[in-house]
Amino acid sequence: MPIEDCKLIDLPAISDPRGDLTFVEGGNHVPFQIRRVYYLYNVPVDSERGGHAHYDLEQVIFALSGSFRITVDDGRERREHWLRDPRTGLYVDRLIWREIDAFSQGAVCMVLASQPYHEADYIRNYDAFLKATKEGPRT
Fold it and tell me: Which residues form the Sugar 3,4-ketoisomerase QdtA cupin domain (predicted)?
């Protein structure tokens, strides 16, 4: 999938004197039905997460608190995105390698996923990822 498909998605916000409320609807605000939600927290500031791609899974990644950097790679080009606004997520399509680092103290990373967890969907070796990008998605 081309790296241009990795786009920032802004969610709606409702603000009043009591605070802000943001919501997300699968198939409306994100380009898939949400089948799994997970989040990372208590990540040491010098840690790296990700370091993989998926054959079929699509994701939108948010910084609910704090900030972190996501580097996306389609096998030809790499781009960096800093996430720090809980209303803005990064859509990561299938066959995109992702690396997440530079976590701020107390950062919380939430991921909306298009599929339940399946280990067989992960590509954890970069050379295997490059081969898969030439073959294209399995679905």
Answer: 5-133
